[in-house]
Amino acid sequence: MRIYYKRLLFAAGLSVFISTGGISAMASGIVKSGPGFVAEANTQAKTEAESLHQQQEEPSIASRLQAAENCNKFILVVGQGGANAAVSYHEKNEEGIWHEIFVTEGRYGRNGASIDKVEGDGKTPVGIYRFTTAFGILDDPGSILPYKKLTKYDYWVDDSNSAYYNRMIDTRQVKKDWNSAENMSASVPYYNYGIALDHNVNQIPGKGSAIFIHCLKGEADNGSSGCIKIPETLMKQLIQSVDGETKIAIYSDISQLTYVD
Predict the structure, then answer these.
(1) With left for phi above 0 and alpha for psi between -120 and 50, is residue 132 left, alpha or beta?
(2) Is the pTM of this model over 0.90?
(3) Domains defined along the chain, listed by start
(4) Which residues of 207-238 are buried (b: 16+ CB within 10 A; e: fewer)?
(5) Percent helix / strand / coil, the chain, rounded to 5
(6) How far is CA 244 from CA 107, 185, 220, in A?
(7) What angle do CA 55, 78, 63 make, to 5 degrees?
(8) Are 23 and 31 in contact (CB under 8 A)?
(9) What backbone phi and psi angles, to 5 degrees, belong to 62?
(10) Which of 76, 102, 85 is nearest to 33 (CA)?
(11) How far apart are CA 201 and CA 116, in angstroms?
(12) Can you tell me the distance from the alpha carbon of 258 to that of 49, in angstroms, rounded to the nearest whole number?
C-alpha cells in the first residue's frame, strides 16, 4: 500500500500527495501552494491524476501511524515549512477502519515547531496530546467536550510566576497575581471556536501556555505564538466531533512520522 499524506491547495482546490517517493501534483497547468511552491503539470502528474480514484480508496494514513494507536479519532499536524502546516482529521469506524474526514492547509507557530517548547518562543510544541476543553466566542455548536462560552471576564494566564499559569480564569472569581494574560473574548475571529490541548497541564513555569487549535482568519493569516489554526467551518466540525480520547499529533515535518510494523 502506498503511504501518502494529502495536502490541500487552497488556490486551485487541488491535492498534493506527499509520499515516500516524493511530491506529485495533480493539475493541468501551474499551481501554487504558498510562497516558493510551484508545481508544473507533466506526464507523471497526469498519470497520477488518472489513479486518483484508486488512491482515495486506500486506508487513511492514520491506519499506519503509531501515534494513532489506542484511539478512534485522530488529528495529524505536519509542518510544511515556515508557519504552514497540513492538518487532517481521521476517524475509525465500527469495523476498525480509519477514514480521512478532512485535510486542510493551516498555520502553526510563526517560528515553526519544537520538541522543547519555551514560553514566548513562537513555536508549536511537537508531540502527541489529547484535549481538555472546548471554548468559543460563539454559542456551543454541539460540543462533546465541556464547552465554555467566552465572556469579557475570561482570561488565559501566560505569566509563569502566577499560580494560575496556563489556566483559563474568570477575573471575577480570583485575585489577580499575574502581569500577563490573554483576553479570550477579544480574539475575534480566532477564538470563535477553539479546543485546548493538554500541553503543560502540570503548569511547569516557562514551558508554554495556551496551546489551542482554533480558527484561521484567512489564507493570508500568518503564524501563531504556538497554536494551530484551521478554517472556521472545519474548526466547528472538530468541536462537534472530538472527545477526551481524541489524539492530536504534531510534527515539524513528515520525516518525524513513525509507522506501525
Answers:
(1) alpha
(2) no
(3) 59-256 (2.40.440.10)
(4) bbbbbbbbbbeeeeeebbbbbbbbbbebbbbb
(5) 15, 35, 50
(6) 23, 24, 32
(7) 45
(8) no
(9) -60, -25
(10) 85
(11) 15
(12) 27
Neighbours of 105 (CB within 10 A): 20
Q: Which three cell numbers stand for residue 65?
A: 501511524
Residues 6 or more apart whose Cβ sits within 8 Å of residue 50: none
- pLDDT tens digits in sequence order for the chain, 261 residues long: 233 344 433 322 333 334 333 333 333 333 344 444 334 444 444 444 444 444 445 679 999 999 999 999 999 999 999 999 999 999 999 999 999 999 999 999 999 999 999 999 999 999 999 999 999 999 999 999 999 999 999 999 999 999 999 999 999 999 999 999 999 999 999 999 999 999 999 999 999 999 999 999 987 789 999 999 999 999 999 999 999 999 999 999 999 999 998
Burial of 116 (0-12, 13-18, 19+ CB in 10 A): exposed
